[in-house]
Amino acid sequence: MRMLRPVRLHQALSRTVHTITLPDPDGGAAVWAVETHTMEDHEARLYRDGQRIGAAEMPAGFTVPGGRIEVDAGLYGVTRVHLVTPDGRERRLAPAPGTLEHRRAVLTRDHPRLSRRIAVTAVVILLVNLVLAVPAGIEMVTSIPQVAERFGTFTSPVVLPGWLLGTLTVAGVVAAVERAVTWRYNRIVDAETIWTSL
User: Fold this and answer.
1) Rounded distance, CA 146 to CA 152, Å?
2) CA–CA gap between residue 112 and residue 101 (Å, rounded)
């Protein structure tokens, strides 16, 4: 039986572990953990007191005492890891020490002002990228012959130098990861991350 290993620093961007302690029917308690390797595969692994007892392709669901743990992930990290009780209530599992989510939560707790500045910067970056992506997206769609015949073509008035385009792309990925690890989502702000996840 495989044992759950601690999350190392070099795994922070690719591996997550979330835990929850649940009472057992016999009166005891067990620590349940869900592990994902979002850059390696799309599988969630379930552990009980550190021992692996199951795995499933995401979106995954595992039956545990008191309900069901539901797990899913996207390109930028885990999007759902919740215990759902029979009456429909949901409780998010806690990020384990060493994970990017845990490190970000500690930063929020210890340096709330810096945390807010990082969050605002991420939103600004994603909105700038979204505004710049709209004309580029229209140009790409109108370059399809069938669309061009019906609606004509469109040339984006915004032409960015390669270095700036690369910088904005990297900044956008970092901003998307920031939004993912802090469990923030907005249909408008995070619209660009939907396209890059396809």
Assistant:
1) 9
2) 15
Q: Which of 176, 58, 56, 193 is nearest to 122 (CA)?
A: 176
Distance between CA 83 and CA 44 in Å, rounded? 14
Confidence (pLDDT) at 197:
42
Measured distance CA(61)–CA(82) in Å, rounded: 10
Rounded to whole angstroms, the maximal C-alpha distance in the chain is 70
pLDDT digit string (tens) for 165-180? 778 778 877 787 777 7
> How many helices (H) does the chain have, and how many strands (E)?
5, 9
Per-residue confidence at 198, pLDDT binned at 50, 70, 90?
A: very low
Q: Report helix, strand or coil for 29.
A: strand
Domain that holds residue 79: 9-99
Is the same domain home to 34 and 89? Answer: yes
Is residue 4 included in any domain, yes or no? Answer: no
In the chain, how many domains are there? 2
CA angle 122, 126, 128 (to 5 degrees): 115
- Per-residue pLDDT of 122-156, as tens digits, reads 888 888 888 877 777 777 777 788 877 777 777 77
